[in-house]
Amino acid sequence: MSIHRRTFVTALGASLFAAGRARARELSVRVEADRSRLFVGDTLQYRVEITAEDVGRVPEPILPSALDQAFEVQGPFIGSSSHIVATGSRITRRETRTYTYELVPLRAGVFDLRAFVPGPGGTRIASNPLRVEVVGGAQAMAGAGSASAAPQADPTRDVHGFPKPTEPAGDVFVWAAVDRDEVYVGEQVNYTLDVYERNRFVNVQIRNLPSFKDFWTEELPEGQERRESVGGVPYRVHPGLRRALFPQRAGDLVIGSTEAVVGLRRIVRSPEVVVHVRPLPAKGQPKDFRPHNVGDFGIEATVDRRSVQQGEPLTLTVTVRGTGNVRFVDPDPWPALDGLRRYDPTVEVQTRVDLDGAGRMVIAGARRYKFLLIPERSGRLSIPAHSVTFFDPRTETYRTARTKPIEIEVTAGASGTETGEPGTIEQEGPDGEPMALMPIWTGDHLPRGRVREPWLTPKRWTAGMATVPLLVLAGHAVRLARERVLGPADARAAARARRMRRARLDRLATLVEADDRFYAELSALLHEVAVARIGPDAAGLPRDRLRRRLVDVGVPEDEVDRFDALMDACDAARFGGAAAGTVEERRKLAAEARELLLRGKLGRQVLR
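The structure assignment produced for this chain is given below.
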């Protein structure tokens, strides 16, 4: 082999190798995750980013095999972007596509999550290394849950006393339970409804919640999403509903099952819950006992002042506070007051959720009665003790709480006599005696002013109402005549828009001398034609999605490629920093745009 031939072969091989390396550099892939260590059942955000330069179509990623073996995968959620890069006289188009996945690990281990994309010649281009460690199973999950909660005396119940499921029931199930199976009438029992799911991406919707017939209900905090192991199987628990229930009658009260729709067709149901409600004991029950008074209550009474003048009002406040159905607790009958007039009270109720010694959620609060009292005589007056009787389910006994009597000092008024009735308006009559009404009118008739006749008379009303249908018919006739002569309004608007686009296309030939206006006008016209061809919902779409929508509505791919090339030329001239080209080049672009829009399917129906 001669030295010239050997030099030629060496140069040819080097150029082919460089072209292959350059081709490989046109594609790159990068992966990242939101964390590198997590528990079984947790969620991992995993993203694959592919960047391509001057490649017709961005390839799909090749995912790591570990995803099929050890993860539940949801996605991908795809995003893309593109821009023009100008380097000297070279203009390239760079496109980036991002694939986002949500992964739920099913077992422990260390996994390599490196991704790939197809390269030239059947090769694969690898991403950056990414290793993720998954720790725990049922034991680690239980340990993680116990780190943030107090140790439980009963492992079958949660921190609030609700029983936990012991057997797994598939990938999704609904769990309903009460913290007590047997209570008295009026005694609080708590109800919980939770959704257990192994795959957090399942679309679960709860419907037809139980009606809680024969119960008075109060809302309880639903709590936070948590992880829980059921029979060694990890689940995510979504709190659905928590209620405090106060049974209104004795017997076996049934809380019906709740349905949840999984996906589109599958239905799962919670178990029915039965609460055995016992009647209140008859032994020791006071006469006319109020059945809502079940719990633990106290009572107090206060006045806003203890020294007043006769006839001057004061406020008596009686407050019943404690745990139970505070909203309906009733004190015993109000005691009789000597020397004091009492008016009906205003009632205020305040409730809250407390925790008892065992961690159960209980309804607590206060019911407050405010009375207006008017002393009717002077001297030392006494407000007797007030009381409330209730049934304590902890001791199963009836108890009574009482206030202490309140003494008030009433002094005589300024005149030393009793004042009149409160709320009476008194004034002196002609004879100097007090009177509560205006003097009686003694004339034969009341004076009247002249009544002005209204403008809207019955005749005018009738004439106006008869004219309305005639005006409507006349307007309808004018609209029909206009459409018969000029055509429907929608058709006229579409024709007017076509004429305006055609005029803009014709005006391009006059703008080839002005490079700054030519490219902006051509780009705007092409985009407007594309949006008009697809429909108004295409306004604002990025270029790649606009391209796909044009193909979907029947525009041939070769016309879409020509449209894309024209738009790229306009973007390069406007934003790329390169030279805007000569007048002849702009005239050539105008002719190509005219050819595409007038003879192709892209401009059909929107220009012709």
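Interim note for the steering committee: Residues 458-486 form the longest helix (29 residues). Residues 3-136 form a domain with the Immunoglobulin-like fold (CATH 2.60.40).
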